[in-house]
Amino acid sequence: MQTVLRRYSGKGAKELFDLLEKRKADVEELIGGVKGLVSYTLVRSGDGGYSVTVCRDAAGVDESVQRAKEWIATNAGEIGAAAPEVMAGPVIAHVNRS
């Protein structure tokens, strides 16, 4: 499995997360369609927020990053949020208790 964390902070990040929260269903549908998706979490922080996406392979992680980038450009471009800090890598341990 592979994971990508996208951290949004700085200019426009709080406004971006206001929009993401308002359009939560759209975001869930968009990322839910990623092939090989294991889990997705969107978290608000004091200065914006971050997302954590876990996929079965790197192709899924790459697809999720591209989908997020395109969605933000189309739906939140006017906000002018800075590009996210992106960290990705292989999963060492994954626990899921639903």
Automatic annotation (TrEMBL):
Taxonomic superkingdom: Bacteria
Protein's name according to its UniProt entry: Uncharacterized protein
